[in-house]
TrEMBL record:
Organism listed in the record: Pseudoxanthomonas dokdonensis
Protein known as: UspA domain-containing protein
Family: Belongs to the universal stress protein A family.
UspA domain segment(s): 18-171, 230-299
Pfam families to which the protein is assigned, alphabetical: Usp
Record InterPro entries: Universal_stress_UspA (IPR006015), UspA (IPR006016)
Length: 299
């Protein structure tokens, strides 16, 4: 299995030399993550790397055994647990390799020819941070293989990665759907303005239907921010539908996504005002859980 993101370009090379990276596991999200990554790779004409990270099993529970068992019994049990962990790791590795190979074949059959597969041991966030200078866009599932689907919990990897990685992150929904219409959640902050500039500069969303929603009142500063965003998007060839609404950002965004059949939600990864709270703390979970479409976080 290849090492992650092999490329002849230097680590600090231009963005054009960076690759789309899809963090896949063996959950129900794997196929969707790969398809959205393939879509992004074709849109921006970049190479694609499918990455599976075999994470170490937690051994924290072993600490509780030492005080309750005799030394010999504890050592024998520990040896058994170590052997079981080694067997588990080998099975996880084999299953991951099979998943990677299958996804690679599917993507190549759909025209994604520059599609590499990589498997590493460690923690996903550490592997990504080590190589983030070679990542153009990360695609990751909303929930991982160990998430509680019944409770709607997000994958722990997702929250760690979104906080740590200084690259755009596309959070894939469970089911793949072609992207024809996207919604920009805009608050006029430097981060959301940077997101608009990135949309305009990238081929990722070109020629797609664009809506821009700002949550707030009709004060002059909000209208000026909307006019700036509109001018930028129009100059880049978009024909944005502008929306200024009052209310709670989370509920308004979710309502707009559903009522307008939005295929992709786009947000700045950090902002201020109430939209910032959607990406910090517990409300991040609430937004991503309530939104049934993929979310593109730009920074």
């Amino acid at each position: 299995m290849n090492t992650i993101i092999e490329t002849e370009a230097p680590v600090d090379g231009p963005a054009a030399s960076r690759r789309i990276v899809a963090a896949v596991d063996v959950s129900d999200y794997a196929a969707s993550v790969a398809q959205y990554a393939g879509w992004a790779a074709q849109r921006v004409q970049a190479g694609l790397s499918l990455l599976h990270v075999v994470q170490p099993a937690s051994t924290a529970h072993l600490a509780d055994l030492s005080g309750n068992l005799a030394l010999g019994v504890h050592e024998e049990l520990l040896d058994k647990l170590v052997r079981l962990d080694e067997q588990r790791a080998e099975l996880v590795q084999q299953q991951g390799q099979q998943t990677l190979s299958q996804l690679q074949q599917q993507l190549q059959s759909k025209g994604v020819q520059d599609c590499q597969i990589h498997q590493r041991n460690g923690l996903l966030v550490d592997v990504l941070l080590q190589h983030q200078d070679r990542i153009r866009l990360l695609v990751i599932g909303k929930r991982g293989e160990h998430a509680d689907f019944a409770q709607g919990h997000l994958g722990s990897n997702l929250e760690r990665v979104v906080r740590a990685l200084e690259r755009p992150v596309l959070v894939a929904s469970r089911q793949w759907k072609p992207v024809n219409r996207f919604l920009v959640a805009f608050d006029g902050s430097p981060a959301s303005r940077k997101a608009v500039e990135m949309i305009c500069a990238s081929p990722l969303l070109k020629n797609l239907e664009c809506q821009l929603l700002m949550v707030g009142d009709t004060r002059r500063s909000h209208k000026e921010a909307m006019n700036w965003a509109s001018a930028m998007l129009k100059q880049a060839g978009f024909e944005p539908l502008l929306l200024l609404k009052s209310g709670e950002p989370e509920s308004l965004i979710a309502e707009q996504v559903q009522s307008q059949e939005i295929d992709l939600l786009v947000m700045g990864a950090y902002g201020h005002s109430r939209i910032r709270s959607l990406l910090l703390g517990s409300t991040t979970t609430s937004l991503l859980r309530s939104c049934a479409v993929p979310v593109l976080l730009l920074r």
